[in-house]
Write a structure and sequence with these properties.
The protein is α+β, with helices and mostly antiparallel strands. It has helices at 8-32, 36-39, 63-66, 69-80, 165-173, 178-206, 208-231, 287-299, 340-356, 421-427, 537-545, 551-554, 570-577, and strands at 44-50, 55-59, 89-92, 104-113, 116-126, 155-159, 162-163, 236-243, 256-264, 267-271, 316-319, 369-377, 382-387, 430-437, 453-459, 464-470, 492-496, 502-504, 509-513, 518-522. It has 13 helices and 20 strands.
């Protein structure tokens, strides 16, 4: 029996309200969390699901996390079946039970109306500690999942409104910074209560039948929009591959990810067959993370007004062979999958899309390569945990637009915020020495890439564990330009000791920081788009005069500049560009 027709205006109002509820969940997390990973960086995602576990609405604070939320929600729903009651709250972090990687803990709450399960409200985010042998969850030496974290399959954390103290205490007993984990878990629990309140307000106003009908219309609308976008992509098969520096264990081996994109009518498939087998180190990407990264790649290149929901993903298929680096089997370690591996997945997808729709695709962004640190702050005697988000690199250019400066890894698409420098110094035993745009870091093009940064800080405490994670230190993994644009330089990292000696810093490696050490990161910029000689000379000269582009590198654009006076040599420039 077909549902009664519904006013499209009502559908629009309900859709906007559902989106707003997910933002309210996020605002609650920002204002009630203890960890700067939540409160400063916004390393989380919030979502609503219907009773069938269809994704209804979501706010992608960190987009790569968003693609994995349906896997976790289904895993929890299937694990508990009929044992789901009003007032319950569930928790999950195990990547082999539907999660993406262990530090991103899923908290979800069922929403009941008239004694019937109708919706779910979810808050999912990166915690400062999840146990194991890592630093803020990252363990470059891990060889299995138990080295990385405490594994939490679907569990009931709150039972009919009462906190399960046994489960909560067990979690806090297995982490080094229980103060932060305790606060952030309770922050998530409270945030899902805000989501529950918002959904019940809609149910009270419109009733379940109207809300169900509106949700189905929203899912159908998104599916129709995505099919229309895919139909604009020329049918065909497009292939690419990219590499990662190493997995932390086999440092002489560069894992490879292959992507074959097939477009046929209104459907699109990303097939990662041919990618390397799962590796010994922590780069392995569980299926939830792989699907999330592939979806991110596509949705970043099509109509930005499309709602990412259960309908939007129906025309998209992701194939990832079991036992490969993009779909490992337990107990393979996987914590780094959301950064270097997800970045590489996105890059392979973008390079296939660039063959089909270059005007909609971006040049490659700077990868992430920076540390997580933790320890005792001697000024307070309290534990701290930090991911050095200040080091974010530049974004890739696209047709008509330069890349964004200092925007961060592509898996966040600009959603990752840099901490306030003064707050950073306040909560961590570090003194910032340099924090500035890095000249000559952007890839040349008609539209240039965004600039990376130079980030230097002095360590004010001894014995700080440091896990430097990521990729992008090698020429093979530096950002590429497209459509004739140039790539950008790889990352450069170093550690200078008080005696003046300097150690190079590698990715996916452990270090110990001591008082007086100076850590320096020179991040990559983004790749350029289009022939650099087509860039207006005035724009090139603006970057030169602002100190962002050296006279030597201005030659990449066919622009000749006097190195002493920074004056433009118009005649020589005309000859060079000819």
């Amino acid at each position: 029996m077909n549902a009664a027709p519904i006013d499209p205006v009502v559908v629009s109002v309900i859709g906007n309200r559902l989106d707003a509820i997910t933002k309210e969940i996020g605002e609650t997390m920002l204002r009630t969390s203890r960890s700067p990973i939540f409160s400063e960086a916004r390393d989380f995602v919030t979502a609503l699901f219907d009773r069938h576990c269809n994704l209804v609405a979501q706010t992608h604070y960190i987009p790569v996390i968003g693609g994995s939320t349906p896997f976790g929600q289904r895993a929890i729903s299937e694990a508990f079946g009929d044992d789901i009651h009003e007032g319950d709250v569930f928790i999950l972090n195990d990547p082999y039970h539907g999660n993406n990687h262990p530090p991103d803990i899923t908290i979800t709450r069922p929403v009941f109306w008239e004694n019937r399960l109708c919706f779910w409200a979810m808050a999912k985010g990166h915690h400062a500690d999840v146990g194991g042998g890592g630093v803020v969850g990252y363990n470059p030496a891990s060889r299995d999942i138990w080295d990385e974290s405490l594994r939490l399959p679907p569990l009931k954390l709150v039972d009919a409104g009462r906190l399960r103290k046994d489960v909560f205490d067990m979690i806090l007993l297995n982490v080094r910074v229980p103060f932060l984990v305790d606060g952030d878990l309770k922050c998530q629990i409270g945030a899902t209560a805000i989501g529950e309140r918002g959904v019940k307000g809609l149910l009270q106003k419109y009733g379940l039948e109207t809300l169900d009908t509106a949700v189905e219309e929203l899912l159908k609308a998104s599916e129709t929009q995505v099919r229309r976008e895919i139909a604009r992509i020329p049918d065909g098969v497009y292939e690419s591959e990219r590499q990662i520096d190493h997995d932390g264990i086999d440092k002489n081996r560069m894992p490879t990810i292959c992507c074959k994109m097939t477009v046929k009518g209104e459907e699109l498939t990303f097939d990662f067959t041919g990618s390397d087998d799962q590796v010994r180190g922590y780069l392995n990407s569980p299926i939830a993370n792989t699907v999330g990264a592939a979806h991110l790649a596509l949705f970043a290149c099509i109509n930005p007004d499309i709602r990412y929901n259960g309908g939007a993903i129906r025309p998209v298929t992701v194939i990832a062979p079991v036992g490969s680096i993009v779909n490992p089997v337990a107990p393979a370690p996987c914590t780094a999958c959301t950064v270097p591996t997800a970045e590489t997945i996105v890059e392979t997808c973008w390079l296939t899309l660039a063959q089909a729709i270059p005007s909609q695709t971006q040049a490659l962004w700077a990868r992430w390569c920076a540390p997580a640190t933790m320890g005792i702050d001697p000024r307070t005697g309290r534990f701290f945990a930090d991911i050095h988000f200040i080091s974010k690199g530049g974004g890739g250019a696209t047709q008509g637009y330069d890349g964004w400066d200092h925007i961060g890894t592509v898996v966040c698409l600009g959603g990752l915020r840099s901490p306030d420098p003064e707050l950073h110094e306040l909560v961590s035993p570090y003194l910032l020495l340099d924090y500035e745009y890095l000249p000559d870091s952007a890839g040349a093009g008609q539209w240039r890439g965004g600039f990376g940064v130079r980030y230097r800080w002095k360590v004010l405490a001894d014995g700080i564990p440091c896990a430097n994670f990521g990729s992008g230190l090698r020429p093979e993994t530096a950002p590429l330009g497209i459509a004739g644009g140039k790539g950008s330089p790889p990352y450069r990292l170093s550690l200078t000791h008080p005696d003046g000696s300097v150690d190079p810093v590698d990715c996916n490696s452990f270090y110990t920081l001591n008082k007086g050490d100076i850590f320096e990161i020179c991040s990559s910029g983004g790749g350029g788009f289009g022939n650099p000689f087509d860039r207006p000379v005035s724009k090139v000269m603006t970057d030169v005069r602002n100190g962002l582009l050296s006279p030597e590198r201005a030659a990449d654009y066919g622009v000749v500049v006097d190195p002493k006076t920074l004056a433009l040599d118009e005649a020589a420039t005309a000859r060079a560009r000819a």
